[in-house]
Amino acid sequence: MMFWYGGHWMWWQATLGWVGMIVVLGLLILGIYALVRSTARKPEAGEQGSNADRILDERLARGEIDAEEYRRLRDLIGSGRGDGTVRSGTRS
Q: Residue 30's domain spans which residues?
């Protein structure tokens, strides 16, 4: 009989329970979404460019390419075009 004592509190408890469950499930879904999105993220254009510059610098340091080839590839990377067209001038 203790359960039915003060029956008006039962509605508050049920409402609070439902709200709490919705909040917890929402946070769980948000966490899973954030985890999936962060693991499936593709590198941004700026990250790719700096990575290409780093690789090109390493190739020059190892002697795989000469200074002229380095400048040509650096210009090609800087232009953002993959069609083999090199813009005039050097990149600073």
A: 10-41
